[in-house]
Amino acid sequence: MIIMIVMNSVHNQIDLNLLHIFEAVMMELNVSRAAERLNMTQPAVSHALRRLRRITNDDLFLKVPSGVSPTPKALELWEPIREGLIHIRQALSPPAFEPAASTQTFTLAAADYTVALFLPKLLPILAQTAPQINIRIVPNTNINAAKLLEQSEIDLAIGRFYRSTLRLRVQEVMCDRYVCIMRKDHPLARKKLTLKQYIKVNHILVTLTGEATGFIDEQLREIDLSRRIALTVNQFTLVPELVAGSDLISAMPSRMVERSPFQANLHITELPIKIAPAFLQIMWHERKQIDPAHEWMRAHLIAIAQELPTVSTL
Question: Do the domains at 105-176+279-307 and 178-276 have one common CATH topology?
Answer without folding.
Answer: yes
